[in-house]
Write a structure and sequence with these properties.
Layout (H helix, E strand, L loop, with lengths): L7 H4 L19 H11 L3 H8 E4 L2 E4 L23 H5 L4 H5 L2 H7 L11 H16 L1
Antiparallel strand pairs: 1-2
Helix pairs in contact: 2-3
Bound molecules: iron/sulfur cluster (2 copies).
Length: 136
């Protein structure tokens, strides 16, 4: 595989296992996320924050249900898939991988869709390709 031809799909394919939607992962919400999701679930911003968020480090994160999953995990799919938070949409193509490529392997320990059998330059190229594609 050549680094100049790597596509995001070459380094990651979601297996829909739901593991990334479980545990206290700290899914931070931007203002745009909150506007989109509160509108999607049909409540105003204040109700949304109270019902679906907790604060962490001064920022709102999505609350966990009692089963340990994100409150929007419906057992097989994200219930807010069309408007899911930026963090969830972008996973695992995070800028932090470009800062330190070892973050990819650390993240892959809880995400079976991430390939760990490829050289670092291929991983970096795949992450860059995703970020370039979504910046357009
Ligand atoms: S942990 Fe990875 S493979 Fe599993 S649902 Fe999340 S993104 Fe997909
Ligand atoms: S918002 Fe959706 S994709 Fe994100 S953690 Fe919750 S269930 Fe998973």
């Amino acid at each position: 595989m050549r680094a100049d031809r790597v596509l995001p799909e070459d380094i990651f394919a979601c297996r829909r296992c739901g593991d990334c939607c479980r545990g206290y992962g700290g899914t931070y919400l931007t203002e745009a996320d909150m506007a989109a999701i509160s509108s999607y679930v049909g409540v105003d911003r204040a109700v949304f924050k109270g019902r679906y968020c907790v604060m962490s480090g001064g920022r709102p994160v999505i609350r966990q249900a009692e089963n340990g999953y994100c409150v929007f995990w419906d057992g097989g799919l994200c219930a807010i898939h069309p408007v899911k938070p930026r963090m969830c949409r972008q996973w695992p193509f995070l800028e932090s991988v470009l800062v330190d490529v070892s973050n990819w392997k650390a993240m892959a320990s809880c995400c079976p869709g991430m390939r760990t059998d490829l050289p670092d330059e291929i991983i970096l190229a795949g992450v860059r390709a995703y970020l370039e594609r979504t910046a357009a």
